[in-house]
Amino acid sequence: MDRPEWAPPGIDVERPSAARLYDYFLGGSHNFAADRAMAQQLLATAPDIPLIAQANRAFLRRAVHMLAESGIRQFLDIGSGIPTLGNVHEVAREVAPDARVVYVDLDPVAVAHSSVLIRGQEGIAAIQGDVRKPGDILHHETVRELIDFTEPVALLVIALLQFVRDEDDPAGIMAQLRGALPSGSYLAISHGVVDGWRHDKEMVKSLYSRTTTPAASRTRAEVVPFFGDFELVDPGLVWVTQWRPDQPSNIDGIKAAKSAVVAGVGRKP
Amino acid sequence: MIVEPAPRGFTDGSHITRVARAWARAIAGASYVPMAHVDIELRLAGFTTRLLRVLTGQPFDPSPATQIGVELVEAHFASPETLGHTISVLADRLPPLAGTSLDSSGRRVMRLLSALSVGYTRGLRERTLDEQESIRQATVLAQLQTEHALRESQEAFRHAAVHDQLTGLPNRIFFEKQLADLIENGGAHHVAICFIGITSLQAITDRFGHVLGDKALTVTADRLRTLARSLGHPLARFAGDQFVMLIEDPAGTPHLAGVADQIIATLSTPVHTDRHLLPMSASIGLVDRPIAGMDANDVMRAAGMTLQWAKAEGTNRWQLFDQARSDREIAKHALTADLAGGIDRDEFFLEYQPLVRLEDRAVIGVEALVRWHHPRLGRLNPGRFIDLAEESGQIVRLGGRLLDKACRQAREWAKLTDSPPYVSVNVAVPQLRDGAGLLRTVDNLLQEVGLAPELLQLEITESASIPDDPQLRRTLDDIAGLGVRLALDDFGSGYSNLGYLQNLPVNQLKIDMQFVRDWKPSSTKSLLPSLVKLAHDLRLSALAEGVETLQQAEYLESIGCDHVQGYYFGKPQAASSITSLLLEWSAEEL
Questions:
Q1: Which NCBIfam families would you find in this protein's record (chain B) (predicted)?
Q2: What is d(CA B377, CA A84) in angstroms, rounded to the nearest whole number?
Q3: Which of A94, A149, A263, B566 reaches 20 to 30 Å from B500, CA-CA?
Q4: DSSP-H helix ranges across B164-319
Q5: B310-329 residue pLDDT tens
Q6: Which CB contacts under 8 angstroms, 24+ apart, belong to B523-531?
Q7: pTM of the full predicted structure?
Q8: What is the pLDDT of residues A208-246, one digit of tens each?
Q9: Looking at chain B, which residue has its C-alpha nearest residue A49?
């Protein structure tokens, strides 16, 4: 039977998923043979990917920590992926036990996994959603239940936008998401860029095109507009390891530019 | 993170910290640990302290190192490289920390690291298996959720396909399926269809627009739904303003009548909106049939027909299906369908009835009367089909054919005698409305046949539309202009606006047969003298229809009536009979 248009995306463990690849690169085993096979191909082209993934994950931890310290109590994490280590609610609740978090991912497996992980924890939810339909996310029943859009919100868009191609209008999507947030809200973005990329980017792109979410290639300059009129907090949009590092050395094991990921946090005036 | 105190006598905290720092540096990047760097060092310092205690314990027991291996993985220091780097760093750094050299403590360090490796790999294996298990479960869960969502959306789609969006009621497709199932599966013996039309709806929509129309419809639907639920009968929205209720095994006609009355009472309550009070009305057609041998399509057609009957009765009425009436209507419908073919096959013919001058009983004209020789039903009189021909618009074509026949026949008679009769042909209002067409037909015919115009008379029925319609008036004037006679048929039976008579270009008033039939020799009250006088005052000749007795004829003569028509003077008959009649007369004259 043909899959009708209104059906949610199917589950195909034979097809690699960006969420499970990310988990693999972070050292997790929440993945399948198809994911690992592709991960090996990616690693052959770009052996730094695990380090980049780790650096990105570390940024998320630092950003959420900073946001919780700044008084943010509600987090909307779009493209949350397979919840591996150091999830947003764990980091946020170390600072603020009453923090509320909604995880959003396109991958039904990621959402199911998150649901199991957070089962029984009040104030935390995982929903299936597509960032390309921001209205659906913003008006989702669960989102409306847990997130009060009259109070500052932290919107987390971590390592997501590189999987939204230009024809899907990421600028419009981000404008709509920003527009839904009240003054004093924050937006954290990390984005894989081609500026510092030393590896064969076409190869990586073509590999990702086999996943459910093909990759887009952008430069740092092309990432800046995603913040709109939000004011970037120090140190601005920088290489992901340079954003408020918690150790002075290069102990993350990767030189800044090699990360090929830029990251920043903006505040809505 | 609490740093456990180093075993006394061996070393101080700063040494431990240095080892932990070197360890952290060595394993950095090998796996992701969700901790700030300072916390990582603290955690590793704790492990270092415990390992040092194991290494220097008396007697030596390496087994606690296994647990430390497990804990390393639990703290997410979990990758093959992490183990390799850990062994390298600890093999180098632990002996000096313990105050010995690797050589002297070699065996202990080896057994310590071996125990640590066992714990580490065990932990890693457990963790991998757990994660594999959890992702598999998540997949199964997601699969179930997806299928559930798919089913729900399909369910919703299916529901939408068989339900009406506006009212949420089952739609026609659903209802027809329900009826078909009932017929197929039996269970009930009888089923009644209650076909409900909300007759006020169209007017509401016309007057207030679709929004209010829809509002009235949804309120109506809600009322009906409530009633249907309380009665326990399924309800559907059939189409537009039509609803249908299915009643299984109704307890007789009184029961059905009760249901219909209830529905009408429920629906005829006005609907309140913000600004309007909308009057509501409904009509209902009821059909009650045995299930056995039932044809769903036929029963719905019957229900629809019955609803039309109810509507024709007036507002807020219901009607019960009547087989005889239905048969008549079906027959009528079939006859209408036959008309066009009948004209094509020339199944229509004319009979002629003499129009007689009272003065000398001479046949001065004949009225052409149409008959249909129907292939199945035999000979049919105009009463059976003229209305159908008018309704279906076939009258114009049929009328044209008859005019043609009549004119040709008139021409035949004109050849036969010196005083030939004129032929009087009935013309229907649709033919008159086709004014230019009729004028052209008549003009062409007269030319083609070579008939003197005064030998053709057109009979028009007294009609409400003639005086007010300048177009019709013009047509009559034009026809009269050709020299063709005009007669006003059935005078006095219908609409009588005497005023317009003065200006109508007619030659003859045909007094309706009712007046003659009602006259008795003993009558003191009769309009006949007045009607004759009226005709004469207007300088028209008076013809009385329906004369069946000598008495009637003599009376009419006594009041000065000019002409008569009726069985007494001759029935409608074949042209050949008229010909014989004319020949007799000519012979007598000779």
A1: GGDEF (TIGR00254)
A2: 89
A3: B566
A4: 172-185, 201-208, 210-231, 252-267, 296-313
A5: 999 888 999 999 888 888 88
A6: B527/B492, B528/B555, B528/B556, B528/B559, B528/B561, B529/B559, B531/B491, B531/B492
A7: 0.56
A8: 666 666 677 788 899 999 999 999 998 999 988 889 987
A9: B29
